[in-house]
Design goal:
Number of strands: 5
Shape: elongated
Number of helices: 3
Length: about 110
């Protein structure tokens, strides 16, 4: 029998959000950081990839996931198709479960 139990509160629940922005990178990074702080999230990991994208691992309560998505969109970061459905599913996670959002934002650079 497999030891993995998906509804076990000891197992971390997560969702993945993909997004993009044409805002200048420095401004977008500040907005992302403030959005995470506003919803009470804790930044667990941060990786800037060649200045073209950023990947964040954010721990938060499941109910704050929709607030994070709203905060990102309010500062000009567009969620990819299908992300709202993931947000809705993630928000139904029981509050006692550890919840992590994997957020990937691509910076849309101007055409050369």
């Amino acid at each position: 029998m497999s030891p993995f139990r998906p509804h076990d509160p000891r197992v971390t629940a997560y969702t993945r959000l993909e997004a993009s922005t044409s805002a200048p990178r420095a401004r977008a990074l500040g907005e992302i950081r403030r959005a995470v702080a506003r919803v009470g999230g804790v930044l667990l990991d941060f990786q800037l990839s060649a200045g073209r994208s950023v990947r964040l691992t954010v721990e938060l309560v499941p109910a704050a996931l929709a607030l994070l998505a709203d905060a990102l969109e309010a500062c000009g970061i567009a969620l990819a198709e299908g992300c709202r459905e993931r947000v809705e599913r993630g928000a139904t996670t029981p509050a006692e479960r550890r919840f992590v959002a994997l957020v990937h934002v691509t910076f849309l650079l101007p055409e050369p």
